[in-house]
Amino acid sequence: MTTSSTLARASDRAKPHRARLWRLLDPDEATLAVLLLAPAAILLAVVIGYPVLKLIYTSFLDLSLTSGMPARFAGLANFRAMIEDPVFWQATGNTILITLITVPGALVVGLALALLANLPFRMRWPVRLSLLIPWALPLSFAGLIFAWFFHSEYGIVNDVLRRIGLSGVIWFNSSPLAFAAICIAITWKASSFMAMIILAGLQTIPRSLYEAADVDGAGPVRKFFEITLPLLRPTIAVALIFRTITALQTFDIPYMMTGGGPGTSTATLAMYIHQNTVSFLDLGYGSALAVVMFIISMAATALYLRMMRGGEGIA
Prior knowledge:
single chain, 315 residues, 13 helices, mainly alpha, 77% helix
């Protein structure tokens, strides 16, 4: 009896261990999801979380490689210096203005290109292939191309103006004209990206909806506003999020076209970060500028997501 009781007690104690082992071997959906997502979460924490935390930490340091002094904690000194820095405000304003101009512009042009590429004609592949060309070009190369287009002496734009009887324009000596040229170049480059995403969204819309609209006698405009545009709203929102973040980080095209000139009138926040970290080697102030750009990007993303949720609630 004693031996049997001992074995029974040992078996009772082993039951929780066997149950936990069984749960590991045959987990429920929630446990399985955690196990599958854990490696990706760890990778993101290492690849994204650590650099962001390191950036935030460096933004509170007085760390200039040209001073020869060791890094020291400076608190909010770098952020207070921004308030009195006119170049920071100018670069931030230029960045926001570029975003407000080029994101809607790229959306309109990209939507038109996507609708054109989605038309039911036989030879659609050349149109769709042409959408890849601007997107495939490196940003710096696109900047060089448009710097040549708007060159005052041998640029294509001035050549066309002269051929139609108008005088050429010195584009990069005027702040408004240089800024306009940059926005045109960015819109051309970004419209391809928007078109590809919207075209993918167009492919998911069932043809039966358009056929039913034809039976009801709906015209192209009515079908666009009542079928195409509402069903494209999630796709457009995703495209706007990616494009807005990219626009807020604009660097290559204005850097290659104007270098921020004349003066600093076309400098962007990313260019000013590059100048402080790479040219001036002021890592503390450059990191603080990067933190501000990160906050602006996250705020824009949160705004888009809030608008999407609000739109779904209304619908």
